């Protein structure tokens, strides 16, 4: 009971400290904006640790953060192999292929009103298909190695990027396009100097959405067949063995990989769309 009371006090203390920082005179500084989520995360982990120990929650229900850290440290080589198999080979390769194909298809659709009107409804239909239905089919088509996981990722990221890119390419106004025509600009000159820069915020919205879809798709696809390596494989087998600390260790790896992937895309967006109002302070 002492640990439970201590957890409540830690939560209240963290809440009070974050409230003071977020509403103080230095709330707009970059240091405070970084410090607030760090304090919240540390408070959450500490409360989790105290409650699990204080309430004596079984390991198979919810392991303590120290148990997860212990499993993480003891299985680093195995977690690294799973990361390479799922993220680098499956998610990242499928992400690059799917996003590149979507961008090229968006350019083709932009030049053909027939394709744009015909393919966008089909894209919305395919995007609504459940992954648990399409993943087993693609695994049977492309085999049990990373190629089938990359295929699942391609299907998942293709249409979000396609829809956003098509919408972005149509963002410029008629007056802007007419101005380019008065300069005798060709289609590609107008594309690279006007329409592509205007479409970048839309394109990056699709790319950022697809970062999380890619990792989720690769992990879920491994539930339906994979070699004896991979995040999805490790999670499914560890659940069967009631090794929940290992499951949470894989979740930590997935969360870190997904966050860094999203952050990398966001940094590229900030460097290329610095002129956009969304990037101004």
TrEMBL record:
It is a multi-pass membrane protein. The chain crosses the membrane at residues 34-52, 92-110, 122-144, 150-169, 202-226, 246-268. Keywords: Cell membrane, Membrane, Transmembrane, Transmembrane helix, Transport. GO terms for cellular component: plasma membrane. Residues 84-269 form the ABC transmembrane type-1 domain. It is found in: Cell membrane. GO terms for biological process: transmembrane transport. SUPFAM superfamilies: MetI-like. Pfam families: BPD_transp_1. Gene3D superfamilies: MetI-like. The keyword ATP-binding does not apply. Belongs to the binding-protein-dependent transport system permease family. This is ABC transporter permease subunit. It comes from Parasedimentitalea huanghaiensis.
């Amino acid at each position: 009971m002492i640990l439970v009371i201590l957890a409540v006090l830690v939560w209240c203390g963290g809440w009070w400290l974050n409230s003071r920082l977020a509403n103080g005179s230095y709330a707009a500084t970059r240091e405070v904006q970084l410090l607030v989520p760090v304090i919240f995360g540390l408070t959450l982990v500490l409360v989790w640790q105290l409650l699990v120990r204080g309430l004596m929650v079984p390991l198979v229900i919810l392991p303590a953060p120290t148990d997860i850290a212990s499993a993480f440290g003891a299985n680093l080589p195995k977690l690294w192999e799973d990361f390479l198999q799922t993220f680098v080979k499956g998610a990242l390769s499928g992400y690059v292929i799917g996003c590149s194909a979507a961008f090229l298809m968006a350019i083709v659709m932009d030049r053909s009103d027939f394709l744009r009107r015909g393919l966008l409804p089909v894209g919305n239909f395919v995007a609504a298909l459940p992954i648990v239905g399409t993943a087993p089919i693609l695994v049977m088509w492309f085999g049990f190695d990373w190629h089938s996981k990359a295929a699942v990722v391609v299907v998942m990221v293709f249409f979000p990027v396609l829809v956003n890119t098509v919408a972005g390419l149509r963002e410029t106004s008629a007056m802007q396009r007419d101005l380019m025509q008065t300069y005798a600009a060709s289609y590609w000159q107008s594309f690279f100097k006007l329409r592509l820069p205007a479409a970048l915020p839309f394109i990056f919205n699709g790319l950022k959405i697809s970062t999380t879809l890619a990792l989720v798709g690769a992990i879920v696809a491994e539930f339906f067949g994979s070699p004896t390596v991979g995040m999805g494989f490790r999670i499914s087998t560890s659940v069967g063995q009631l090794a929940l600390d290992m499951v949470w260790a894989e979740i930590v790896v997935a969360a870190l990989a997904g966050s860094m992937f999203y952050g990398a895309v966001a940094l590229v967006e900030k460097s290329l769309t610095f002129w956009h109002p969304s990037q101004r302070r």
